Structures are given as C-alpha cells and as structure tokens.
C-alpha cells in the first residue's frame, strides 16, 4: 500500500482550533480551522467526513488537489456529473504530458465538494497546481514507506488493508479524525526527513513518461495518475486506501521485530513542498475572511497542517523557483476498474465496487451485496437460490463475530461466497470479483465541460449515432447497407486512425461472407481522453483530423507501396474523401518508382480490398482501378525474373505473396487482369529453373483455374518426381503443389498413386531428409482431408494395382517362342 495515507485531526473547540492555526482565541469570532485527514477512496472516511462537515458547518472548504482546478468545482453541481470522474490536466502544446486526479462517489474529497455545492460553501483545491506538476522534468521523490503497514504491524496484523478495514472502515465515526492525525503525527516524528533545498525546485510528480509508473492519485495527496501507467510509483506519499475513523483510536507501539521488517517512513522534499503550498492557500483563505475553514487532505499530511501555521516566509522559500508550464484542465469520465490497485493506479483501492456498495447501501449492506452476487452467478447460468443467500449471510455474520468485528467486511463476505455459493470453485469466485468487487462503472460529465473541439465533435457524433461510451466490452455488428451503420463504421475507423481504440474489429456472431457486414468490440478507456487531446493537433473534427494525419503519414520519406495501399484502404473505410485523391496520386508515383516485385505484390491485395469496399460503400473507384491495373502490369513484367535463384525461405515467402495476389485477382473478377496474371503463372510453371515451392504452386493455381487439365498436371508431377531431381527438390515441389489443399488428393486417385509410389521408393536416408517438409505439407490439411486420404489408400492399396486383363493369344508368335525354347533346350541337352 505505497500510496498516500490521508486522515485528519479534528479540533475540539473554536479556541483550540484558532490557537492551532496561529489565530489568537481572545478575539471574539476568531477563525476556526479543522483539518480532516482522510483515506482516499474510503467509504467510511467519506461518510465520517460528511457527518463532520454537517456538524462543523464550515464557510470555506479546502481539498487536496491541483489548486488551478478551482473553476471546475462548479460542474460538480450538474445533474449529468456522475462519478467516477477525474480531473484531467495536460500541456496544450504537448498533450502526452498529462495527469489525472480521479474521484469516486465514495471518495471523501468528492463528498466534500458535494457538501460545498449543496450548501453554497466555497470549495477550493490547495495542492500544487497542475502547471507545476506537469512542468517538473524529474521525479525526485523517494520511497516514503507505508504508515498503514506500520500501524497494522504494531497491532499484530500482517495485512494493512485488513487491519484498516477492521479497525476503522467498519465503524464510521466523525469524531475519529483527531486520533488518526495523532497517530500520523507520531509516525512522522520517527520518520526520516530528507530535506534537500536543491530538490525543492523539482517537486512535480506528473513528469514520468506515459508508460511509466503512476506517481499516485490526484484525489489523494497530490500525486496524479499518469496516462498509460502500469504500476504504482515508488515515490508516492503513503495513502490510506480505506477510510473512516473510530473514536478512541489508539496508536499501538510497533515492536522491534516489526520495525525491522517494514520499509522506513520518509518525509521527502516533495512532500514538504506540497505541504508548504497547502499552508499558503490556507493563509489566503483565512485572510480572505473565512471564519470556519475545513481542510480535507490525506492523513499523512494532516499533522503538517494542524497547529500554528507560523510565519509564511519559510514556506515561501520552499515554493520559490518552482517550474511552471501552461496547463489546461477539464473533467473526464473515469471507471471503477481504474480505481483498482490491480490496474496500476498508484493510489487505488482493491475493491471499488465493494466500497461503492458500502457507501450507497446503508441498510443491510451484507444481505444486499450477497443478493447482487447471486444475480451475477445466475447470469452465468450457475444455480444459486435464496437459501444460498441466507446461509452466506449467516456465515459472514458468524465469521465477523469470531473475529470480533462489528460487521462483516469484504474478507468475511468473500469467504462466505466462496464456501456457500461457489462451492470452493475459484473460477466462479473470480466472476464475482471481476464484476462486483472491482466492477466496471463508467462515470459521466456535463456536455458543457471545457474540452478540445475534437472531443466535442466526438461527443456530438456519438450522440447522433447512438454509440454510448461504456466501460464493459460489448459487441457491435454493423450492416453497411444501412446508413446509420455506415456512419458508425466511418466513425470507428477514423478513431482508430487517430490512435483512439474505442472499437476493435472482430469476428461477429452473425455469419456472413459478404462485404456489407462489420463486427466490432467496443470498450471505452479513460486514457482515450488524453489520446483525443493528442489527436486535436490534426484538426477540430474527426474527419478533418483523420484526413490530415493520414496525408501527413503518406507524405513522409521512406513510405512503402504497401503502407500507401493500406492507408488508402483505411481512408476509404473511414470515408476520408479529402485524402483519397492525394493518396492515390502518392501510391501511383511510389509504385512507378518501386522495382521490388515483393513490395508490389504486398500492396495488391489491399488495393483489391479497397476496390471491393468502394463498391459496397458507393465510392467512385475509377482512379483506384487505374492504379490497380498499373500495379498488375508491373507485377506481371517483373515476377518471372524475381522467382529466379531463390533459397527455400525466400521461395516460401514469395509463394505466400503469390497466393494472396492470386486470391485478390480472382476476387476482383476482371477478365483482363485474370488473363494477364494466369499468363504470367504459365510462364513460371513452364520453367525448370524455379524453386519447387513456387513452380509447384504455379501449376496448382493454373490447375484450379482450369488452364491445365488433370493429365497435364499429372505429367508435370511425374517430371518433378523424376530421377534427375533431389529428394528435397521433389518434396518442395509437392509442398508447393499441395500445400494447404488436401482435397485434390482425395478426388484425384492418379495423383495420389504417383505420390505414394514416390514415397515408397525412397530409401531410409532420403525419407528422413524429406520427412520434415512432407510432415508440414500433410499437416496443413484438415483432419477430414487426412482421414479421406487414408481411406483412399486403404480402399485401393498402398499403390494402385492394375488388374491383369486377359491377354489375347497370338498363335503365330507363340509358335515362334516355342521353337526358340526347344532349340535352346536341345542345345543345352
């Protein structure tokens, strides 16, 4: 649990609070400040904080988060703002530099914002601004250890999460913040302080590359989540991941053995800089006239914010010279799975679905939860009855009583589910964990939320086409004969072109061999919000952005004919008419200059597919036909020379390209193109200096096209198996002739007989040398084809035996033979 730990200390009365914050209590109406140290994304902390705020009735609230996000707090009041959501900050000129600050409905910070908007109380953020967070070039933080682990170990627990859940989360109490802050203060007294003036100028925690570990959570203690992060940051301040506090909380003293096994707690320079900024904001709010100030922060920071604030000069020195950059901030949807620690979110929680349930279901939460579990298992056709639910509730309550817990926690409920509902089956339990304990809820933000024009266009197009952004994957089958489905296809292809993988092409459940159907799997990821910002440099609408990007890619030096053909196919699929002409011109010029036949062969199938898609989508393909015909002319002219002098690997690769080109030309069904292509294959088949893999395949393709009859193919096979060729060359020819298509041997017994005779005539060394290639050839046949070949051999024998027909007797020749035999025997006698 190497994240920020947040809890707080409540000030018992106005005089003590005023004294703690450096305000003299002898003045009537002196300001009162209460610091609430919370655990980020903890439902108990959220509920306790809400009760504490209702009791305290603040006139100003400060929340740990980027201080330049204050203008966005007003959007929290919108009806369409639905957690989980996140603050997104990015550098407009370099959108890849971005960070998220996520919030769930059970996040204490979210409840503080809701309280503020519900009661017209000003709410501000107090942590380092995003302009500083995104400007830092290096992450100078150190591994600060986990204060929760220290407290859990001192209490005799080996799992900090289980300890916190048992001691705090199960018994929400608004009076517990003092005790938690006191515990954190005691831990900080023994922590290592790494105060380095030089590092104070590099405090940012959002500077890691997109694939790096996230520095922590933004709703937590200032560490935003990096797009594409995969593991928690070692530099994140410890964060309490569950929440809530209990009255009478006492700090246990860790034993020497426990202390030796725990990572040391460290208060690094980054933490000090952040806390200095928080105190400065507190001074500003108090100076602005606030009389009852509530500060909501991670518990690890609470001791640094309580007590007298003291003079501002030391904090100003810490904050002097911090780097800054331009930053834009907005709200974006988030998901529960991205709050899970298992997803790599450094300040996450392991069970966001469970925490959401605890926060929203206050009456009989265990029984209601187990009812949801039963529903999940029933949806997967697993037998679960109401009796299972009753027994699971009883078992969970019994386990909680044995463990001296006031209420069953997630561990007790999970054990009850495993034993009663799943019968000990971990696979069934995994379904519950994935769909309920973690969950996959996607939040929503108001339509008038500030955003880049490209995101606004996507939002509008999605609404028009009725494509809903969902966190759970769902299949979408499109019928391209319908106008709306065509538009949906265009949208998804444009997004893929821009690097936004909302939709992934897949094989649909509806079987169809036509080109009028497309199948997609849709799943929205929060990181796509950053991808949209990055793609905004190409244009303000999806169409213009996709056209600009694809033309830019096609215009780069070194782009190949194959890449241009693929780009042209993509442009047609995405209906990018503004880019089609430019791509065709670029492809025609590149094909004219490219003398490598393999490049041209690779481009031909894609270009043919483009012609087919153009037909079904009603696109003008005259220019494409001209390019395709020119490409085929160059291929037919250069292919006979390209097949000379190839080794086995090169021949196999070229054979694959020839197969693809043959399929493409056959699909196009153009008489002139087909004639030219088959004439080229005929020239290759007639040569005896071509590698067998290509020569055999040319004969086979001509045979399939009925340009070579069975007798001619049998003659060519006999020539290939003649004595003059090596066993390896013979095997290569057979592989080229038969590769992947065993039905020919099933129906042509003569070919089967010739191959069988050749195999039976091989001596042991020759057979061993050719076995690998032959095994690959026959192994590519389908199982039914192999069985049919075996049956044919059983029916006719290992080799065809021609029945001896009665020969006509010639008496004259017989007499000659008898005289010759008599003379020989007489001479011998």
**Amino-to-carboxy terminus distance:** 112 Å
Structural class by secondary-structure content: alpha/beta
Compute the number of structural domains. 5
**Mean of residue pLDDT?**
77
Share of residues in strands: 5-15%
Radius of gyration, Cα only, in angstroms?
38 Å
Number of E strands: 12
Question: Count of DSSP helices?
Answer: 34
Principal-axis shape: elongated
Largest sheet: 4 strands, parallel
Strand order of the largest sheet: 1-8-2-5
Uncertain runs are: 1-27, 196-223, 228-260, 342-346, 798-805
Helical residue percent?
A: 40-55%
Outline the fold blueprint.
Blueprint: H1 14-20, E1 32-38, H2 43-56, E2 60-66, E3 85-91, E4 94-103, H3 108-118, E5 123-127, H4 130-133, H5 147-154, H6 160-169, H7 177-190, E6 192-194, H8 256-261, E7 266-268, H9 269-287, E8 292-298, H10 302-305, H11 313-319, E9 328-333, H12 352-360, H13 365-379, H14 386-402, H15 410-421, H16 426-438, H17 453-464, E10 474-479, H18 483-497, E11 503-505, E12 517-522, H19 528-535, H20 542-554, H21 561-573, H22 577-593, H23 597-617, H24 622-642, H25 648-668, H26 671-685, H27 692-704, H28 710-720, H29 727-738, H30 743-747, H31 749-761, H32 764-779, H33 783-796, H34 811-828
Parallel strand pairs: 1-8, 2-5, 2-8, 6-7
Antiparallel strand pairs: 3-4, 3-9, 10-12, 11-12
């Amino acid at each position: 649990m190497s994240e920020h730990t947040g809890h707080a200390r409540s000030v018992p009365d106005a005089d003590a609070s005023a004294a703690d914050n450096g305000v003299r209590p002898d003045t009537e109406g002196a300001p009162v400040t209460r610091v609430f140290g919370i655990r980020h994304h903890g439902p108990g902390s959220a509920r306790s904080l809400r009760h504490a705020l209702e009791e305290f009735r603040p006139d100003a609230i400060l929340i740990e988060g980027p201080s330049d996000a204050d203008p966005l707090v007003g959007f929290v009041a919108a009806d369409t703002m639905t957690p989980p959501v996140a603050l997104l900050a990015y550098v407009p000129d370099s959108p890849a530099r971005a960070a998220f600050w996520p919030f769930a409905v059970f996040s204490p910070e979210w409840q503080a914002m809701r309280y503020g908007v519900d009661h017209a109380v000003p709410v501000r953020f107090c942590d380092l601004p995003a302009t500083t967070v995104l400007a830092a070039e290096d992450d100078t933080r150190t591994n600060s250890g986990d204060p929760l682990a220290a407290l859990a170990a001192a209490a005799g627990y080996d799992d900090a999460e289980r300890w916190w859940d048992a001691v705090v989360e199960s018994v929400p109490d608004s009076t517990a913040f003092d005790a938690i802050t006191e515990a954190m203060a005691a831990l900080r007294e023994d922590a290592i302080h790494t105060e380095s003036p030089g590092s104070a100028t590099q405090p940012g925690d959002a500077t890691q590359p997109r694939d790096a570990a996230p520095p922590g959570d933004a709703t937590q203690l200032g560490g935003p989540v990096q797009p594409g992060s995969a593991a928690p940051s070692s530099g994140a301040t410890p964060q309490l991941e569950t929440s809530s506090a209990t009255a009478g909380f006492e700090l246990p003293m860790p034993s020497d053995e426990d202390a030796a096994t725990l990572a040391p707690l460290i208060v690094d320079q980054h933490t000090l800089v952040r806390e200095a900024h928080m105190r400065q904001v507190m001074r500003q709010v108090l100076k602005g006239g606030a009389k009852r100030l509530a500060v909501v922060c991670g518990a690890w920071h609470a001791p640094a914010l309580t007590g007298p604030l003291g003079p501002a000069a030391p904090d100003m020195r810490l904050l002097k010279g911090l780097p800054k950059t331009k930053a834009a901030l907005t709200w974006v949807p988030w998901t529960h799975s991205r709050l899970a620690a298992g997803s790599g979110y450094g300040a996450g929680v392991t069970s966001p679905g469970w925490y959401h349930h605890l926060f929203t279901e206050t009456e009989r939460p265990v029984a209601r939860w187990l009812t949801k579990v039963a529903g999940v298992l029933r949806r997967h056709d697993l037998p679960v009855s109401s009796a299972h639910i009753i027994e699971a509730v009883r078992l969970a309550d019994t386990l909680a009583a044995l463990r001296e817990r006031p209420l069953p926690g997630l561990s007790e409920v999970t054990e009850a589910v495993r034993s009663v509902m799943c019968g000990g089956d971990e696979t069934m339990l995994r379904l519950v964990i994935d769909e309920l304990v973690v969950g996959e809820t996607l939040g929503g933000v108001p339509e008038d939320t500030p955003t880049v024009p490209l995101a606004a266009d996507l939002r509008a197009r999605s609404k028009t086409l009725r494509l809903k952004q969902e966190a759970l994957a769902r299949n979408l089958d499109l019928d391209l004969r319908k106008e709306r489905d065509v538009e949906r296809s265009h949208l998804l292809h444009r997004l893929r072109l821009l690097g936004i993988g909302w939709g992934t092409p897949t094989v649909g459940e509806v079987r169809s061999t036509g080109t009028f159907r497309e199948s997609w799997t849709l799943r929205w990821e929060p990181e796509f919000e950053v991808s949209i910002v990055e793609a905004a440099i190409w244009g303000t609408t999806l169409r213009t952005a996709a056209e600009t990007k694809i033309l830019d890619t096609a215009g780069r030096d070194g782009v190949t004919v194959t890449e241009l053909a693929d780009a042209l196919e993509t442009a047609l699929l995405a209906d990018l008419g503004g880019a089609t002409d430019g791509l065709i011109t670029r492809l025609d010029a590149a094909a004219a200059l490219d003398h490598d036949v393999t490049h041209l062969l690779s481009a031909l199938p894609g270009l043919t597919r483009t012609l087919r898609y153009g037909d079904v989508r009603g696109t003008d393909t005259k220019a494409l036909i001209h390019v395709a015909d020119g490409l085929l002319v160059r291929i037919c002219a250069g292919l006979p020379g390209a097949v000379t002098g190839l080794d086995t690997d090169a021949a196999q690769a070229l054979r694959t390209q020839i197969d693809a080109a043959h399929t493409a030309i056959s699909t196009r069904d153009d008489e002139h193109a087909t004639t030219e292509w088959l004439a080229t294959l005929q020239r290759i088949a007639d040569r005896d200096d071509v590698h067998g893999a290509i020569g055999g395949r040319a004969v086979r393709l001509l045979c399939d096209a009925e340009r070579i009859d069975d007798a001619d193919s049998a003659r060519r096979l006999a020539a290939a198996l003649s004595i003059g060729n090596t066993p390896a060359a013979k095997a290569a020819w057979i592989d080229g002739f038969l590769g992947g298509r065993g039905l020919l041997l099933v129906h042509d017994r003569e070919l089967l007989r010739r191959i069988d005779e050749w195999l039976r005539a091989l001596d042991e060394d020759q057979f061993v040398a050719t076995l690998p290639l032959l095994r690959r050839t026959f192994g590519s046949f389908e199982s039914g084809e192999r069985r049919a070949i075996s049956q044919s051999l059983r029916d006719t024998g290992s080799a065809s035996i021609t029945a001896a027909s009665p020969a006509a007797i010639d008496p004259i020749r017989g007499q000659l033979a008898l005289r010759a035999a008599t003379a020989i025997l007489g001479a011998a006698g």
